[in-house]
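Allow me, if you will, to draw on your knowledge of protein folds for a short while. I have a record of one protein: its chain in single-letter code and its fold written as discrete structure tokens. Could you please explain, in whatever detail you think fit, how the structure tokens follow from the sequence? The record follows directly beneath this note:
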Amino acid sequence: MGVVEKIKEIEEEMARTQKNKATEYHLGLLKAKLARYRAQLLEPASKSGPAGVGFDVQKSGDARVALIGFALRFLDDSISEPSLSFPSVGKSTLLSKTTHTASEVASYEFTTLTAIPGVIEYQGARIQLLDLPGIVEGASQGRGRGRQVVSTAKTADLILIMLDATKSEEQRRLLEIELDAVGIRLNKHKPDIVFKRRTTGGITFNSTVKLTQTDEKTIRTILAGYKLHNCDVMIREDITTDDFIDVLIGTRKYIPCLYVYNKIDSISLEQMDKLARTPNTIVISCEMDLNLDYLIERMWAELALVKVYTKKRGAHPDLSDPICLRKGATIEDVCNGVHRSLAPNFRYGLVWWGKSSKFSPHAQKVSLQHQVQDEDVVSRSMIELNGQSRMKATSI
């Protein structure tokens, strides 16, 4: 029996099993097996094949945003709408309008057959926008170019799911199912769980909160299913069984997501208002250039980039070329953003202006571990050379 057949068998057994206190241990074991088989399907253990399954697109800029949508007509006799289909949701048009990158645009499915990159320049930052080939139903099982799309989407800092405002909500549900099945968790944070393997000592289980959605017995059953008999488990929030399996596998990606509904010029104002009020949702029209500026603003907010300006000693800061970093970055990240050789010789830095400075507008002396905030102005005025401290004007 192949992996796909095993996955289908487990899914059918889970659908037949009633969810109650008596069956939660059995369901936990089935979920663990299902996650393991899905990982084998998308990331085969054999190394005999060609290296890598992603698209040959180098990651560039300060952040990467992936455009994902359906590409194949979805026809299912179980669906009441016989004409349910999601081709041409407008990914290529959005890429062309926001990045001025030439991308083939057409009203039929499979317009995009490979990843097409573009660059959005916004507030001094360069954001790479990737137009990925559309996902077909069954992409989580490797159908179409599912493995390539998933492999590239996991490297993104933000996912834009393009949807057709004139179609039913089934399109959104199906895309969420496909992405969840391959280990991409949308708009979720990593569970606060500490898991460490050991060679001896058995299983040590601790929880700082009351668990209402799972229990210790279920977790020990899952660990036994993965043949883990010596480990430390510390749980610091009320988690589900799926959350623990995600941490156990360790390959899950927690990525923010915006749902972008295109073609709002073809629906009523009431429908558009309802969609616009849905969390993490943007309504646009690529053909009429409606709300594209707001979409870029929301992308910037979701990416949570921090702009840091550098200053030479005795000179004004350079406000035209900021260093863009992720939220939570430190002075060490700023040094690496200028040149890798700066951090090893670092003595201390100066934060002249910005939210992270306690003495603004006067300089504050900081270490490599100091966290910078948006629009900080920093400089490095002292380094060690041959064991001696020496003043030196640098670009940071």
Summary: The chain has three domains: 3-44+191-249, 63-188+253-302, 305-391.
